[in-house]
Amino acid sequence: MEKMRRQNLKSQDWFKSFDHTADLGACLNADSLEGLVRQGALALLFFTINPATVEANQEKSFEIEFDSPEQLLVRTLSKLVFLFDCEGFLTRNMELEISGNKALVKIFGEIYDKNKHQTKHLIKAITWGGLEVKIENGKYLATVIFDD
Predict the structure, then answer these.
(1) Of 81, 57, 53, whose CA–CA distance to 144 is shortest?
(2) What distance in Å separates the CA atoms of residue 119 and residue 68, rounded to the nearest whole number?
(3) Consecutive H or E run containing 86
(4) 45 SS3 class
């Protein structure tokens, strides 16, 4: 299982945001597919809340079935949006273990607290439009659009 390395929250060389019509976009890059999904999760957190205010003191896990890297990315991020919408769970860190067409996802974070967390955007969905995942020079690159 590949564990998430603690991100330097002040350095965003792995993630570049951009405006997209009424939505938010992110260009991600990582050394592995697991890393790319983790970067997507952290980008989602950056758009939603100041990540520095979120502690990783609770754990949840779930399984994702997928047929492509794009499907893994969208399904995992969509599950995180669902968990925030339904339970108020903010994902700070993530571990993934990919085996064949399944991924075991462990997330670490905490429940939203209006006295502690100030929301920036409320992400409604991860869109398929504009989604792209590719490998260039050994790096996994992705463009993801977040429906705001």
Answers:
(1) 81
(2) 32
(3) helix 69-87
(4) helix
pLDDT tens by residue, 108-134: 999 999 999 999 989 999 999 889 999
Neighbour count for residue 130 (Cβ, 10 Å):
12
Q: Tokens 């997209």 — which residue?
A: 20
* Backbone angles phi and psi of 7, in degrees to 5: -80, 140
pLDDT at 4 over 70: no
Supply the pTM of this predicted model: 0.85
Domains and CATH numbers, the chain: 19-147 (3.55.10.10)
Structure tokens at 124: 């409604």
Cβ distance 46 to 55 under 8 Å? no
